[in-house]
Amino acid sequence: MKKTLTTTVPAALVALGLATAAQAEIRIGASVSSTGPAAFLGDPEAKTLEMMVEDLNAKGGINGEQVELVLYDDGGDANKARTFATRLIEDDEVQAIVGGSTTGTTMAILSVAEDAEIPFVSLAGAIDIIQPVKTFTFKTPHTDRMACQKIFTDMQARGFTKVGLISGTDGFGASMQAQCKDVVGDYGIEIVADETYDPKDADMTAQLTKIKNADGVQAVLNPGFGQGPAIVTRNYRQLGIELPLYQSHGVASDSFIELAGKDAAEGVRLPGTALLVAGLLPESDPQKPVVTEYKAAYEAKYNQPVSTFGGYAHDGLALVVDAITRAGSAEPAAIRDALEATSGLVGTTGIYTMSPEDHLGLDLSAFRMLEVKDGGWTIVE
């Protein structure tokens, strides 16, 4: 079986497999942050996309047609992401794009894809990506607003009414901070401390000290991603703060526990996906076969733990493949229409059912509230 996987690095195209790019019948593009500050997102995403396309072609492709993946590394730079999106569409002539590891790179790709009327499935979290609905844009991760709602539901159940907020000023952190402020009143909870930090900051002790001394604070929430939340978690323990600490789905991976340290991360809660607790899912869970198969394949191929972020890429490509299969066509307009009609597609992140009003297709039930116990993830019952 011929393989038509092509991976693109910033300087050049490197062909993998036996066929040339010209022999590929279906071309899917991607721009992810394989290097740079968001590499913890983009590296597993790139590896997942490559693995899935190799496997797909080995099994006969889509409707008998081979697939070429054209993959760029934007390094987390929105300007590079915009350039690569343009190149994917104008030079590589892809029929769909999967990517955008961060909110910033996603918004850059989105503008190009929408103008060119090319379907784009984002791997980033901000609600602005799909609300208001954009005609050609879809996404796989839960929104930051949904993460706030899941966290506040858990806080409410534990009787917390006053919380502190410490947020990153990056695109994701700022967006989630705004969304949490917008919905917190629905849960009878008051934000009594509100601090921020720059993603490049190496110490958040000053902000956490203010939160620790805030009147009546009962729990703390940290919207953010990257190294910031790990530093917050370490500083939190160093200050001896014993209040419950919540993180966002932006750090839902084993690498967060490693960066923060097992002792510091103990007891941290966050909304995550079934993928992080694949072994704890009951046999009756419809996601179990999907997450266990992906986890086993990824870890066998790359000899490293699977991550939530690679799971987002898994679902992004699965959505495009499913859309092309159902449409019986790889024309961009046909893919777009089929994506919007997705119904009951089981992914690692949840079960997707989209509509003209909903280009995510997930609800809060797809989120699992997770807690770090003994250095690993457990499901909060």
CATH superfamily of the largest domain: Response regulator
What is the tally of helical segments?
Answer: 12
Q: Give the low-pLDDT segments.
A: 6-22
Largest sheet: 7 strands, mixed
Q: How many β-strands, per DSSP?
A: 16
| The CATH class of the largest domain | Alpha Beta
**How many domains make up the coordinates?**
2
Shape: globular
What share of residues is helical?
Answer: 25-40%
Please identify the structural class as seen in this structure. alpha/beta
CATH topology tier name of the largest domain = Rossmann fold
State which percent range the strand residues make up: 15-25%
Radius of gyration: 20 Å
The end-to-end span amounts to 47 Å
Mean pLDDT across all residues, rounded? 92
The SSE string, one letter per element, is EEEHEHEHEEHEHEHEHEHHEHHHEEEE
Strand order of the largest sheet: 2-1-4-3-5-6-7
CATH architecture of the largest domain: 3-Layer(aba) Sandwich
Report on the structure:
- With 381 residues, this protein is an alpha/beta fold.
- The protein folds into two domains: 6-142 and 289-366, 3-Layer(aba) Sandwich (Rossmann fold), CATH 3.40.50; 144-278 and 368-379, Rossmann fold (3-Layer(aba) Sandwich), CATH 3.40.50.2300.
- Helix content is 39%, strand content 18%.
- The chain contains twelve helices and 16 strands.
- The chain has helices at residues 39-58, 78-90, 103-116, 144-157, 171-183, 205-212, 227-238, 254-260, 262-265, 288-302, 308-327, 332-340; strands at residues 6-8, 13-15, 26-32, 67-73, 96-99, 120-122, 137-139, 162-168, 190-197, 219-222, 245-247, 269-272, 345-346, 351-352, 368-373, 376-379.
- It has a seven-stranded mixed sheet with strand order 2-1-4-3-5-6-7, sandwiched between helices.
- Helix 2 packs parallel to helix 3 (103-116) and helix 7 (227-238) crosses helix 8.
- Mean pLDDT is 92; it is low at 6-22.
- Residues 1-24 form the signal peptide.
- It comes from Albidovulum denitrificans.
- Pfam families: Peripla_BP_6 (PF13458).
